Fold:
Amino acid sequence: MRLIKAIAPVVIALSCSNPVFAGTTYKVAAEITESGKQIASPTVVVKSGAPAVLKISGDNGYEFAVEVLPAEKGTIDVTAQVRTSKGEFSTKLNGNVDTPMTVSTGDIGLKITVNPHEG
Structure:
């Protein structure tokens, strides 16, 4: 138990100095397609390292989950999951801010653009 008490302040100090935990926020704009036709264009603001999930119900419903982390050399790592009536997939992408990243599998496509968000 003493070890945990001694380590806790160090972990908190490291977390506060790490940009992943320092409150960096990103604006994520996505386009979700089915069979080449856009079905949704969600936009969310997320904190670095904190996943966001959007669930829209109904006949044209979908689920979109995303998490953004800063990576090496100024790039970002994006983890995303998409679920539509045509199926679902998960992906991990690495790219630059303000540069669209596109992935598709089967009938489902996803284009994500991430920008820093202030506010």
